[in-house]
Amino acid sequence: MNKSISGFSKLSKSQKIDWIVNTYFSNTNNAKQVIKQYWNSDEKLQQLHDEFIENTITNYYLPLGVAPNFLINNTLYTIPMAIEESSVVAAASKAAKFWMDRGGFKTEVISTTKIGQVHFLFQGDFKVLHAFFETIKDKFLTDAKSITQNMEKRGGGILDIELRNKTEDLQNYYQLHVKFETLDAMGANFINSCLEQFAKTLKAEALNYEAFTEKEKHIEVVMSILSNYVPDCVVRAEVSCKVDDLTEKNINGKAFAEKFVQAVKIAEIEPYRAVTHNKGIMNGIDAVVLATGNDFRAIEAGVHAYAAKNGSYSSLSHAKIEDDVFTFWMEIPLALGTVGGLTGLHPLVKLALEMLNNPSAKELMQIVAVAGLAQNFAALRSLTTTGIQQGHMKMHLMNILNQFEATDAEKATLTKHFEKHTVSHSAVVSAIENLRSNA
Ligand code: MEV
């Protein structure tokens, strides 16, 4: 069977599905049925989803859960989370409740600047290039006026354009390094449009610049694109309480706090641990980022680069005990938007944002950071006390039961059984077998 095809994107949706099922599946009816069972019966809604991307054949569901009781700067939130991992929402909810009883989360947006760059090659003298740049600096802004005027009216826009000489690292390589304030928009389209206009201005003005030699006049723009590294778009989230207030039934507050701080210190100096530690933070962050229609790949890339900003990959969060007060905090770059993109389009995204009281981008940065810190707290709390598997497997129990197509009655019996027994894959399998053989 020929598995290559040309003009695929031009086929109708049903032609695409036919080609896929005939090319890749032996049971074509079953494949078609699986694809179609995820279609929405509301045709308009389905069309909306079809048109988000090219070559849509169906929808891919993720659960949208909610974690209530998040007290952030004295306001209560229920946080929407789109994620498939069984224990994440449960852990977030538990951490939220824990800190709600201890003063809640405190957050602060530290900065909101975003960066974009025009990467170009120039064959000549940097001093001459710099003089040229100074003469056309204002022209960049005037030429981009039609793109920037609305953003400027709202208080945002281009903050600064800098010429950077990168020739020590790469021959003939220079940049326009541009700072932006994009307010409630994530700003990717705005930034990229500005950059592409700067590139045009740069090339056109160079051709007319008399002090340039013929060679210097021909600036080669390699690309113009925003950076997902946003070390100046940073939010801080923190929890803090007396060490004694961490005491619970089987847990001594002081001993717990000390072990917790130790666990964070390990993640600060050991990259193998730091990556997993930060992955736990991203469990919370990605879930809210996704639920609110933001670009989780951009967030992931930016956050991990930030975690390595001092030359070695390290923990994003930190903890200390001072004067018997435990403090756990994190500073994290989050370039988020609450207008534009999917935010006004995807009905579930609109719902998620409304649940959060239609936050500004700054407010969303704080909420998302808190979800990350809460998740990290929950993970470290389990890891340093009971171990992660107890809670994890409890939540995973339903997945195993579903794998064995357990009925509702079987699920009820076995869930009760595993309240008192340790969940492992083999323990669940034998419990199901036992139950079924005794039925
Ligand atoms: C699992 O998704 C996340 C954890 O591994 C995070 C951590 O180890 O801190 C539990």
From TrEMBL:
InterPro entries: HMG_CoA_Rdtase, HMG_CoA_Rdtase_bac-typ, HMG_CoA_Rdtase_cat_sf, HMG_CoA_Rdtase_NAD(P)-bd_sf, HMG_CoA_Rdtase_sub-bd_dom_sf. Pathway: Metabolic intermediate metabolism; (R)-mevalonate degradation; (S)-3-hydroxy-3-methylglutaryl-CoA from (R)-mevalonate: step 1/1. The keyword rRNA-binding does not apply. It is an enzyme of class 1 (oxidoreductase). It catalyses: (R)-mevalonate + 2 NAD(+) + CoA = (3S)-3-hydroxy-3-methylglutaryl-CoA + 2 NADH + 2 H(+). GO terms for biological process: coenzyme A metabolic process. Its EC number is 1.1.1.88. NCBIfam families: HMG_CoA_R_NAD. Belongs to the HMG-CoA reductase family. This is 3-hydroxy-3-methylglutaryl coenzyme A reductase.
